[in-house]
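Annex B. Sample input.
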Amino acid sequence: MSDYPNILSIAGSDSGGGAGIQADLKTITVLRAYGLSVITALTAQNGTGVSGIQATPEDFVSRQYTAVREGFKIAAAKTGMLCNRAVMLSLLPLLRERDFPLVVDPVCVSQSGHSLLEASALDTLRESILPLADLLTPNIPEAEALTGLRISGRKDLEPAALRLHELGAGAVLIKGGHARMREEEETRMTDWLSLKGGPLQPLSHRRVSTPNNHGTGCALSAAIAVFLGQGENLENAVRRAQSFLVRALEKSFSPGSGAGPVNFLAGAGLDQNFLPPGGVIRRMEPDVD
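Annex B, continued. Sample output.
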């Protein structure tokens, strides 16, 4: 395998640069991989919100994917914003034939609260794309939307994960950033990893309080795809991606109005403040329990 595996992002474009394809390609690059893209939609957005969405014609989505597959050996891929039913159905037969792991980030709503998925497409996401996922990475609202179950505490997570497995997901990572479970401490947060047939695993890490959290889900799923493409097993890939995101959030910043992005360079240890004496970059160890 190349030192720089090819990682594919299938997602929407963020004109503000902090989420979507832009966040994915930045993450992929700083984590020493080569980023490829299939753009499913254009968005007009910045840190304060989304003012417009233009879906890519479905035949051009499939043409992008075919061109990438014919030109590159893909080590892993992720999906983000898939926008509508037509886009999903154009990708469905192509992704069924893949020979690489697929991380599905079931993007439904932007950080600012704008819907990124047509209402009529939720069933298609659930029935067609979700069963393709080697790893599904919903936040709590997305897990509720996909399962129809209410998640109000730790006791609700296992039934939700089980339901997502029943719908076809190979593994599930329910992200804990949207709700504080009562059993968590103020300084910690927990994501929950479920492997089919195994117990729900709590993966705890530092809670970073910052308003600059635009694109966190995109960066996390892209990082997981990179580490899978580099040969890590699933749990290690998730743990390393969590560590990347925590560091990126700690040095997040605001280049414009509203919510700013995570600091991709700092997440990978490439920010000047993270370089040790002599400028030697060391492999990051996961900051999780």
